[in-house]
Amino acid sequence: MLGIEGAAIGFGMLLCLLFIGLHIATALFLVALTGAYLFFGDAMIRPFGTMMWGTLNNFLLVAIPLFVLMGEILVRGGVTERMYRALADWTRPLPGGLLHTNIVASTVFASISGSSVATAATIGTVAFPTFRKQNYKESWVAGSVASGATLGILIPPSINLIIYGAITNTSIGALFTAGILPGIVLASSFMGVIIIACLWNPAIAGKPQPMAPWSERRQRLIDLVPPVVIFVLVMGSIYLGFATPTEAAGVGVIASLGLTAFYGTLNWNMLRESFLSCVTTTGMTLLILIAAFYLNFILGVLGVPAQVSGFVSSFDVQPVVMILLLVCLYMVLGCFLDALAMMIATIPIVLPIVLFIGYDSVWFGIFLVLMCELALITPPVGMNLYVTQSVRGRGNVGTVIAGVLPFILCILFVVALIAIFPNVLF
After folding, report:
1. What is the DSSP string of 24-67?
2. 3-state secondary structure of 338
3. How far apart are CA 310 and CA 352, in angstroms?
4. N or C: which end of the chain has fewer CB within 10 A?
5. Tens-digit pLDDT profile for residues 200-229
6. What is the rounded distance in angstroms from the CA atom of residue 215 to the CA atom of residue 218?
7. Chain CA centroid to CA 295, Å
8. pLDDT of 391-402, one tens digit each?
9. The model's pTM
Protein backbone atom coordinates (compact mmCIF):
# COMPACT_ATOMS: atom_id res chain seq x y z
CA MET A 1 0.00 0.00 0.00
CA LEU A 2 3.05 2.23 -0.28
CA GLY A 3 1.67 3.81 -3.44
CA ILE A 4 -1.57 4.82 -1.71
CA GLU A 5 0.29 6.26 1.27
CA GLY A 6 2.59 8.19 -1.05
CA ALA A 7 -0.40 9.43 -3.05
CA ALA A 8 -2.12 10.60 0.16
CA ILE A 9 0.98 12.51 1.21
CA GLY A 10 1.33 13.99 -2.28
CA PHE A 11 -2.32 15.04 -2.34
CA GLY A 12 -1.89 16.76 1.02
CA MET A 13 1.21 18.50 -0.27
CA LEU A 14 -0.71 19.64 -3.37
CA LEU A 15 -3.51 21.09 -1.25
CA CYS A 16 -1.01 22.97 0.91
CA LEU A 17 0.77 24.43 -2.12
CA LEU A 18 -2.51 25.55 -3.65
CA PHE A 19 -3.73 27.03 -0.36
CA ILE A 20 -0.66 29.27 -0.13
CA GLY A 21 -1.44 30.64 -3.59
CA LEU A 22 1.04 28.79 -5.81
CA HIS A 23 0.09 28.56 -9.47
CA ILE A 24 -1.80 25.35 -10.29
CA ALA A 25 0.74 24.10 -12.84
CA THR A 26 3.67 24.81 -10.50
CA ALA A 27 2.00 22.99 -7.60
CA LEU A 28 1.20 19.94 -9.75
CA PHE A 29 4.73 19.82 -11.16
CA LEU A 30 6.40 20.16 -7.74
CA VAL A 31 4.33 17.28 -6.33
CA ALA A 32 5.12 15.08 -9.34
CA LEU A 33 8.81 16.01 -9.23
CA THR A 34 9.04 15.27 -5.49
CA GLY A 35 7.35 11.89 -5.90
CA ALA A 36 9.53 10.97 -8.88
CA TYR A 37 12.74 11.81 -7.02
CA LEU A 38 11.79 10.17 -3.71
CA PHE A 39 10.65 6.88 -5.26
CA PHE A 40 12.84 6.61 -8.37
CA GLY A 41 15.66 9.13 -8.12
CA ASP A 42 16.39 11.08 -11.29
CA ALA A 43 15.42 8.16 -13.57
CA MET A 44 11.86 9.46 -13.83
CA ILE A 45 12.85 13.12 -14.05
CA ARG A 46 14.95 12.87 -17.20
CA PRO A 47 12.06 11.77 -19.47
CA PHE A 48 10.02 14.89 -18.62
CA GLY A 49 11.03 16.77 -21.77
CA THR A 50 10.03 13.88 -24.01
CA MET A 51 6.75 13.50 -22.12
CA MET A 52 6.02 17.23 -22.41
CA TRP A 53 6.51 17.08 -26.18
CA GLY A 54 4.33 13.98 -26.41
CA THR A 55 1.58 15.71 -24.44
CA LEU A 56 1.57 18.87 -26.54
CA ASN A 57 1.98 17.03 -29.85
CA ASN A 58 -1.70 16.12 -29.79
CA PHE A 59 -4.01 17.27 -32.58
CA LEU A 60 -6.96 17.15 -30.17
CA LEU A 61 -5.50 19.93 -27.99
CA VAL A 62 -5.58 22.38 -30.90
CA ALA A 63 -9.33 22.54 -30.25
CA ILE A 64 -8.71 24.45 -27.00
CA PRO A 65 -7.26 27.68 -28.48
CA LEU A 66 -9.68 27.52 -31.40
CA PHE A 67 -12.77 27.34 -29.17
CA VAL A 68 -11.36 30.09 -26.93
CA LEU A 69 -10.67 32.27 -29.98
CA MET A 70 -14.17 31.66 -31.34
CA GLY A 71 -15.72 32.84 -28.06
CA GLU A 72 -13.46 35.91 -27.90
CA ILE A 73 -14.35 36.98 -31.44
CA LEU A 74 -18.07 36.62 -30.80
CA VAL A 75 -17.88 38.60 -27.55
CA ARG A 76 -15.73 41.42 -28.89
CA GLY A 77 -17.68 41.50 -32.13
CA GLY A 78 -20.92 42.35 -30.30
CA VAL A 79 -22.75 39.14 -31.23
CA THR A 80 -23.45 38.28 -27.58
CA GLU A 81 -24.97 41.69 -26.80
CA ARG A 82 -27.33 41.38 -29.76
CA MET A 83 -28.32 37.89 -28.65
CA TYR A 84 -29.03 39.06 -25.09
CA ARG A 85 -31.33 41.86 -26.19
CA ALA A 86 -33.27 39.55 -28.50
CA LEU A 87 -33.75 36.96 -25.72
CA ALA A 88 -34.95 39.64 -23.28
CA ASP A 89 -37.98 40.29 -25.47
CA TRP A 90 -39.25 36.74 -24.99
CA THR A 91 -38.32 35.97 -21.38
CA ARG A 92 -39.83 39.17 -19.94
CA PRO A 93 -43.40 37.72 -19.59
CA LEU A 94 -42.23 34.88 -17.30
CA PRO A 95 -42.32 35.30 -13.49
CA GLY A 96 -38.84 36.68 -12.87
CA GLY A 97 -38.73 38.53 -16.16
CA LEU A 98 -35.22 39.36 -17.27
CA LEU A 99 -33.62 37.02 -14.72
CA HIS A 100 -34.48 34.24 -17.14
CA THR A 101 -32.60 36.12 -19.84
CA ASN A 102 -29.38 35.61 -17.87
CA ILE A 103 -29.96 31.85 -17.78
CA VAL A 104 -31.06 31.46 -21.40
CA ALA A 105 -28.30 33.77 -22.68
CA SER A 106 -25.71 31.86 -20.64
CA THR A 107 -27.01 28.59 -22.07
CA VAL A 108 -26.78 29.85 -25.65
CA PHE A 109 -23.40 31.53 -25.14
CA ALA A 110 -22.06 28.42 -23.39
CA SER A 111 -22.81 26.45 -26.54
CA ILE A 112 -20.41 28.65 -28.53
CA SER A 113 -17.86 29.64 -25.88
CA GLY A 114 -16.87 26.67 -23.69
CA SER A 115 -15.72 28.90 -20.82
CA SER A 116 -17.64 29.73 -17.65
CA VAL A 117 -15.49 32.73 -16.77
CA ALA A 118 -15.97 34.22 -20.25
CA THR A 119 -19.72 33.61 -19.99
CA ALA A 120 -19.95 35.32 -16.57
CA ALA A 121 -17.97 38.35 -17.72
CA THR A 122 -19.89 38.69 -20.98
CA ILE A 123 -23.44 38.22 -19.68
CA GLY A 124 -22.73 40.28 -16.56
CA THR A 125 -21.43 43.23 -18.57
CA VAL A 126 -24.67 43.35 -20.56
CA ALA A 127 -27.03 42.47 -17.69
CA PHE A 128 -26.22 44.71 -14.72
CA PRO A 129 -26.92 48.12 -16.31
CA THR A 130 -30.28 46.84 -17.61
CA PHE A 131 -31.40 45.40 -14.27
CA ARG A 132 -30.50 48.46 -12.23
CA LYS A 133 -32.84 50.58 -14.28
CA GLN A 134 -35.72 48.25 -13.41
CA ASN A 135 -35.08 47.76 -9.65
CA TYR A 136 -34.46 44.00 -9.66
CA LYS A 137 -33.09 42.54 -6.42
CA GLU A 138 -29.38 42.60 -7.05
CA SER A 139 -28.52 39.37 -5.21
CA TRP A 140 -30.77 37.44 -7.61
CA VAL A 141 -29.31 39.24 -10.63
CA ALA A 142 -25.76 38.43 -9.51
CA GLY A 143 -26.70 34.87 -8.57
CA SER A 144 -28.32 34.19 -11.94
CA VAL A 145 -25.29 35.58 -13.80
CA ALA A 146 -22.70 33.65 -11.77
CA SER A 147 -24.70 30.40 -11.73
CA GLY A 148 -25.89 30.57 -15.33
CA ALA A 149 -22.29 31.03 -16.43
CA THR A 150 -21.33 27.65 -14.94
CA LEU A 151 -23.14 26.08 -17.91
CA GLY A 152 -20.11 27.10 -19.98
CA ILE A 153 -18.13 24.07 -18.83
CA LEU A 154 -20.99 21.58 -19.24
CA ILE A 155 -22.83 22.41 -22.46
CA PRO A 156 -20.58 21.58 -25.44
CA PRO A 157 -18.17 22.67 -26.67
CA SER A 158 -16.58 22.63 -23.21
CA ILE A 159 -12.88 23.24 -22.66
CA ASN A 160 -13.02 21.28 -19.40
CA LEU A 161 -14.52 18.27 -21.17
CA ILE A 162 -11.77 18.44 -23.80
CA ILE A 163 -9.12 18.43 -21.07
CA TYR A 164 -10.85 15.56 -19.25
CA GLY A 165 -11.06 13.56 -22.48
CA ALA A 166 -7.38 14.17 -23.21
CA ILE A 167 -6.30 13.03 -19.74
CA THR A 168 -8.54 9.95 -19.54
CA ASN A 169 -8.47 9.02 -23.25
CA THR A 170 -12.28 9.35 -23.42
CA SER A 171 -14.06 10.23 -26.66
CA ILE A 172 -14.63 14.00 -26.86
CA GLY A 173 -17.64 13.46 -29.09
CA ALA A 174 -19.21 11.12 -26.50
CA LEU A 175 -18.54 13.64 -23.73
CA PHE A 176 -20.06 16.48 -25.75
CA THR A 177 -23.15 14.40 -26.50
CA ALA A 178 -23.49 13.45 -22.83
CA GLY A 179 -23.31 17.07 -21.70
CA ILE A 180 -26.25 18.39 -23.72
CA LEU A 181 -29.26 16.96 -21.87
CA PRO A 182 -27.90 17.48 -18.31
CA GLY A 183 -27.05 21.04 -19.36
CA ILE A 184 -30.60 21.66 -20.57
CA VAL A 185 -32.04 20.09 -17.40
CA LEU A 186 -29.78 22.26 -15.24
CA ALA A 187 -30.71 25.44 -17.11
CA SER A 188 -34.41 24.52 -16.77
CA SER A 189 -34.02 23.94 -13.03
CA PHE A 190 -32.33 27.34 -12.68
CA MET A 191 -35.33 28.93 -14.39
CA GLY A 192 -37.72 26.89 -12.23
CA VAL A 193 -36.11 28.24 -9.05
CA ILE A 194 -36.45 31.79 -10.35
CA ILE A 195 -40.14 31.27 -11.16
CA ILE A 196 -40.90 29.80 -7.71
CA ALA A 197 -38.99 32.58 -5.93
CA CYS A 198 -40.70 35.37 -7.90
CA LEU A 199 -44.16 33.89 -7.41
CA TRP A 200 -43.39 33.79 -3.68
CA ASN A 201 -41.89 37.31 -3.64
CA PRO A 202 -42.72 39.37 -6.76
CA ALA A 203 -40.51 42.22 -5.52
CA ILE A 204 -37.46 40.20 -6.64
CA ALA A 205 -38.28 41.04 -10.27
CA GLY A 206 -38.72 44.78 -9.69
CA LYS A 207 -41.42 46.82 -11.36
CA PRO A 208 -43.29 45.29 -14.33
CA GLN A 209 -42.05 46.67 -17.61
CA PRO A 210 -44.05 47.12 -20.83
CA MET A 211 -43.41 44.65 -23.61
CA ALA A 212 -41.70 45.80 -26.76
CA PRO A 213 -44.00 46.02 -29.82
CA TRP A 214 -44.43 42.77 -31.75
CA SER A 215 -42.75 44.31 -34.78
CA GLU A 216 -39.56 45.04 -32.80
CA ARG A 217 -39.57 41.63 -31.14
CA ARG A 218 -39.89 39.85 -34.47
CA GLN A 219 -37.21 42.05 -36.01
CA ARG A 220 -34.70 41.28 -33.25
CA LEU A 221 -35.29 37.53 -33.54
CA ILE A 222 -32.76 37.56 -36.37
CA ASP A 223 -30.02 38.13 -33.76
CA LEU A 224 -30.72 34.66 -32.30
CA VAL A 225 -29.96 32.95 -35.59
CA PRO A 226 -26.13 33.36 -35.68
CA PRO A 227 -25.41 31.59 -32.34
CA VAL A 228 -27.71 28.73 -33.35
CA VAL A 229 -26.08 28.44 -36.77
CA ILE A 230 -22.59 28.34 -35.25
CA PHE A 231 -23.66 25.70 -32.72
CA VAL A 232 -25.19 23.57 -35.49
CA LEU A 233 -22.09 23.94 -37.66
CA VAL A 234 -19.70 23.01 -34.85
CA MET A 235 -21.63 20.27 -33.07
CA GLY A 236 -23.40 18.95 -36.17
CA SER A 237 -20.11 18.39 -37.97
CA ILE A 238 -18.86 16.38 -34.98
CA TYR A 239 -21.99 14.29 -34.43
CA LEU A 240 -22.43 13.51 -38.14
CA GLY A 241 -18.80 12.45 -38.45
CA PHE A 242 -17.83 15.16 -40.92
CA ALA A 243 -15.16 16.66 -38.65
CA THR A 244 -13.10 15.99 -35.56
CA PRO A 245 -13.60 18.34 -32.55
CA THR A 246 -10.48 20.25 -33.63
CA GLU A 247 -11.66 20.65 -37.21
CA ALA A 248 -15.11 21.66 -35.98
CA ALA A 249 -13.51 24.33 -33.79
CA GLY A 250 -11.77 25.69 -36.89
CA VAL A 251 -15.12 25.83 -38.65
CA GLY A 252 -16.49 27.79 -35.68
CA VAL A 253 -13.66 30.35 -35.85
CA ILE A 254 -14.21 30.90 -39.57
CA ALA A 255 -17.97 31.25 -39.04
CA SER A 256 -17.45 33.77 -36.20
CA LEU A 257 -15.09 35.83 -38.38
CA GLY A 258 -17.65 35.86 -41.18
CA LEU A 259 -20.37 36.87 -38.74
CA THR A 260 -18.44 39.81 -37.27
CA ALA A 261 -17.51 40.91 -40.79
CA PHE A 262 -21.23 40.88 -41.68
CA TYR A 263 -22.01 43.05 -38.64
CA GLY A 264 -19.15 45.43 -39.48
CA THR A 265 -17.28 44.86 -36.19
CA LEU A 266 -14.32 42.94 -37.64
CA ASN A 267 -11.19 45.08 -37.40
CA TRP A 268 -7.51 44.74 -36.54
CA ASN A 269 -7.88 46.05 -33.00
CA MET A 270 -10.65 43.53 -32.22
CA LEU A 271 -8.59 40.69 -33.69
CA ARG A 272 -5.52 41.76 -31.73
CA GLU A 273 -7.41 41.75 -28.42
CA SER A 274 -9.04 38.40 -29.25
CA PHE A 275 -5.71 36.75 -30.10
CA LEU A 276 -3.95 38.13 -27.01
CA SER A 277 -6.69 36.85 -24.71
CA CYS A 278 -6.68 33.51 -26.52
CA VAL A 279 -2.91 33.09 -26.14
CA THR A 280 -3.05 33.94 -22.42
CA THR A 281 -5.87 31.50 -21.67
CA THR A 282 -4.42 28.70 -23.81
CA GLY A 283 -0.91 29.06 -22.39
CA MET A 284 -2.21 28.81 -18.84
CA THR A 285 -4.39 25.80 -19.68
CA LEU A 286 -1.70 23.84 -21.51
CA LEU A 287 0.86 24.49 -18.77
CA ILE A 288 -1.56 22.96 -16.27
CA LEU A 289 -2.19 20.04 -18.63
CA ILE A 290 1.52 19.26 -19.01
CA ALA A 291 2.01 19.18 -15.23
CA ALA A 292 -1.12 17.04 -14.82
CA PHE A 293 0.08 14.46 -17.37
CA TYR A 294 3.44 14.21 -15.59
CA LEU A 295 1.75 13.75 -12.21
CA ASN A 296 -0.57 11.09 -13.65
CA PHE A 297 2.44 9.32 -15.16
CA ILE A 298 4.19 9.15 -11.78
CA LEU A 299 1.04 7.90 -10.07
CA GLY A 300 0.61 5.25 -12.77
CA VAL A 301 4.18 4.02 -12.37
CA LEU A 302 3.62 3.80 -8.60
CA GLY A 303 0.53 1.67 -9.28
CA VAL A 304 -1.76 4.00 -7.36
CA PRO A 305 -4.89 3.53 -9.56
CA ALA A 306 -4.79 -0.26 -9.22
CA GLN A 307 -4.13 -0.06 -5.48
CA VAL A 308 -6.98 2.39 -4.97
CA SER A 309 -9.38 0.09 -6.81
CA GLY A 310 -8.24 -2.84 -4.71
CA PHE A 311 -8.57 -0.82 -1.52
CA VAL A 312 -12.13 0.22 -2.35
CA SER A 313 -13.09 -3.32 -3.30
CA SER A 314 -12.21 -4.44 0.21
CA PHE A 315 -15.18 -2.44 1.55
CA ASP A 316 -18.77 -3.57 1.08
CA VAL A 317 -20.15 -0.15 0.11
CA GLN A 318 -23.14 0.43 -2.15
CA PRO A 319 -22.44 2.56 -5.26
CA VAL A 320 -24.92 5.25 -4.12
CA VAL A 321 -23.05 5.61 -0.84
CA MET A 322 -19.76 6.00 -2.71
CA ILE A 323 -21.29 8.68 -4.94
CA LEU A 324 -22.53 10.55 -1.85
CA LEU A 325 -19.02 10.39 -0.39
CA LEU A 326 -17.57 11.74 -3.63
CA VAL A 327 -20.11 14.58 -3.68
CA CYS A 328 -19.11 15.51 -0.13
CA LEU A 329 -15.41 15.31 -1.05
CA TYR A 330 -15.82 17.58 -4.06
CA MET A 331 -18.01 20.05 -2.17
CA VAL A 332 -15.28 20.43 0.44
CA LEU A 333 -12.50 20.67 -2.18
CA GLY A 334 -14.57 23.16 -4.17
CA CYS A 335 -14.50 25.56 -1.24
CA PHE A 336 -10.72 25.79 -1.47
CA LEU A 337 -9.58 24.79 -4.97
CA ASP A 338 -10.04 26.22 -8.43
CA ALA A 339 -12.36 24.06 -10.56
CA LEU A 340 -9.68 23.04 -13.06
CA ALA A 341 -7.18 22.27 -10.30
CA MET A 342 -9.75 20.16 -8.48
CA MET A 343 -10.57 18.24 -11.64
CA ILE A 344 -7.01 17.49 -12.66
CA ALA A 345 -5.78 16.68 -9.15
CA THR A 346 -8.48 14.11 -8.43
CA ILE A 347 -8.94 12.28 -11.76
CA PRO A 348 -6.14 9.70 -11.28
CA ILE A 349 -7.37 8.83 -7.77
CA VAL A 350 -11.14 8.96 -8.18
CA LEU A 351 -11.65 7.57 -11.71
CA PRO A 352 -10.57 4.01 -10.77
CA ILE A 353 -13.09 4.07 -7.90
CA VAL A 354 -15.91 5.21 -10.19
CA LEU A 355 -15.08 2.55 -12.77
CA PHE A 356 -14.98 -0.12 -10.08
CA ILE A 357 -18.48 0.68 -8.74
CA GLY A 358 -19.97 0.34 -12.22
CA TYR A 359 -20.05 3.79 -13.85
CA ASP A 360 -18.08 4.60 -17.01
CA SER A 361 -15.61 7.37 -17.80
CA VAL A 362 -18.17 9.42 -19.79
CA TRP A 363 -20.54 9.46 -16.80
CA PHE A 364 -17.71 10.47 -14.50
CA GLY A 365 -16.73 13.29 -16.88
CA ILE A 366 -20.19 14.82 -16.62
CA PHE A 367 -20.35 14.23 -12.86
CA LEU A 368 -16.94 15.84 -12.41
CA VAL A 369 -17.86 18.88 -14.51
CA LEU A 370 -21.05 19.34 -12.46
CA MET A 371 -18.96 19.31 -9.28
CA CYS A 372 -16.59 21.80 -10.92
CA GLU A 373 -19.63 24.00 -11.54
CA LEU A 374 -20.26 23.93 -7.81
CA ALA A 375 -16.63 24.90 -7.21
CA LEU A 376 -17.06 27.91 -9.51
CA ILE A 377 -19.78 29.38 -7.26
CA THR A 378 -18.65 28.09 -3.87
CA PRO A 379 -16.92 30.55 -1.53
CA PRO A 380 -14.22 31.42 -0.70
CA VAL A 381 -12.47 30.81 -4.06
CA GLY A 382 -15.33 30.37 -6.55
CA MET A 383 -14.02 32.09 -9.68
CA ASN A 384 -17.44 33.05 -11.04
CA LEU A 385 -18.28 34.82 -7.78
CA TYR A 386 -15.38 37.23 -8.17
CA VAL A 387 -15.76 37.68 -11.93
CA THR A 388 -19.42 38.59 -11.39
CA GLN A 389 -18.56 40.93 -8.52
CA SER A 390 -15.87 42.59 -10.66
CA VAL A 391 -18.36 43.22 -13.47
CA ARG A 392 -21.00 44.32 -10.95
CA GLY A 393 -18.64 47.03 -9.72
CA ARG A 394 -20.25 47.93 -6.39
CA GLY A 395 -21.08 46.47 -2.97
CA ASN A 396 -19.28 43.33 -1.82
CA VAL A 397 -19.07 39.72 -2.90
CA GLY A 398 -21.41 38.65 -0.09
CA THR A 399 -24.36 39.74 -2.23
CA VAL A 400 -23.22 37.44 -5.03
CA ILE A 401 -22.71 34.54 -2.60
CA ALA A 402 -26.23 34.99 -1.21
CA GLY A 403 -27.58 35.02 -4.76
CA VAL A 404 -26.03 31.70 -5.81
CA LEU A 405 -27.30 29.64 -2.86
CA PRO A 406 -30.63 28.58 -4.49
CA PHE A 407 -28.78 27.61 -7.67
CA ILE A 408 -26.35 25.39 -5.76
CA LEU A 409 -29.34 23.24 -4.82
CA CYS A 410 -30.20 22.94 -8.53
CA ILE A 411 -26.74 21.60 -9.36
CA LEU A 412 -27.00 19.03 -6.57
CA PHE A 413 -30.43 18.06 -7.92
CA VAL A 414 -28.97 17.32 -11.38
CA VAL A 415 -26.10 15.37 -9.79
CA ALA A 416 -28.68 13.23 -8.01
CA LEU A 417 -30.54 12.70 -11.30
CA ILE A 418 -27.50 11.47 -13.23
CA ALA A 419 -26.51 9.22 -10.32
CA ILE A 420 -29.97 7.62 -10.08
CA PHE A 421 -30.71 7.56 -13.83
CA PRO A 422 -27.30 7.32 -15.52
CA ASN A 423 -28.72 5.81 -18.72
CA VAL A 424 -31.59 8.28 -19.12
CA LEU A 425 -29.88 11.66 -19.21
CA PHE A 426 -27.05 10.53 -21.51
Report:
1. HHHHHHHHHHHHHHHHHGGGGTTTHHHHHHHHH--GGGGHHHHH
2. coil
3. 9
4. N
5. 988 887 666 666 677 777 777 788 888 888
6. 5
7. 22
8. 787 778 888 889
9. 0.80
